[in-house]
Write a structure and sequence with these properties.
The chain is of the alpha+beta class. The chain folds into 2 domains: 61 residues; 95 residues. Helix content is 31%, strand content 28%. The strands form 2 sheets. A 5-stranded antiparallel β-sheet has the order 7-6-5-8-9.
């Protein structure tokens, strides 16, 4: 039995443990990132917020991460922040949010190659039912598509947020899609 996701902090703990499948390499804080030699995961990182809708910092170069982390902690508090490797945003094919609704899948999406918040602000599209399913099946590789179906079955009445790339990327080999968030009614 899979418990519903109660809030963003609950989600982040479970996300870091890998419960939701392929995701960005992630660290609780700058010290953990530094001790894990996080720079081996690329040059750019993302300071993320444990507060729903909270401020986020994209494309932070690894040489500036310590300073930016301190600035972000001063603004938001260190317990509210964590670090992820920056996804290959320029290789984005398709991204959005999907859930099961009364008429089948309900999808909000974009094909803009920017971080999701920015991309959805620029161009948001919607699809339902068979059209939503066809779009998802078209863009996600077989592993990602099958895992999305598992997430939608395990976490009923939850939204699954994802980004699909034209390359495999994330913590699990063989996936072209990262699952950023699974959220209930928080």
């Amino acid at each position: 039995m899979y418990l519903p996701v109660r809030n963003k902090k609950d989600f982040v703990v479970r996300y870091e443990a890998g419960e939701f499948g392929n995701h960005s390499p992630t660290w609780n804080n700058w010290i953990e990132w530094q001790s894990d030699h996080g720079e081996r995961f690329g040059k750019l990182f993302h300071i993320r917020n444990r507060v729903a809708g909270g401020k986020t910092w994209y494309n932070v170069h690894w040489l500036a991460l310590g300073v930016k982390w301190l600035e972000a902690c001063h603004e938001c508090g260190s317990s509210n922040l964590y670090i992820s490797a920056m996804a290959p945003t320029e290789q984005t094919l398709f991204q959005g949010e999907v859930m099961r609704g009364i008429w089948g899948l309900e999808l909000t999406y974009t094909t803009i190659a920017k971080p999701m918040r920015d991309a959805l602000r620029e161009c948001t599209k919607t699809a339902r039912g068979i059209i939503a399913n066809l779009l998802i099946e078209h863009y996600l590789d077989a592993n990602s598509y099958n895992w999305l179906r598992v997430l939608l079955c395990r976490y009923k009445d939850h939204v699954v947020e994802f980004s699909c790339y034209n390359t495999q990327w994330g913590t699990l080999p063989g996936y072209n899609t990262v699952f950023w968030e699974v959220r209930g009614g928080y």
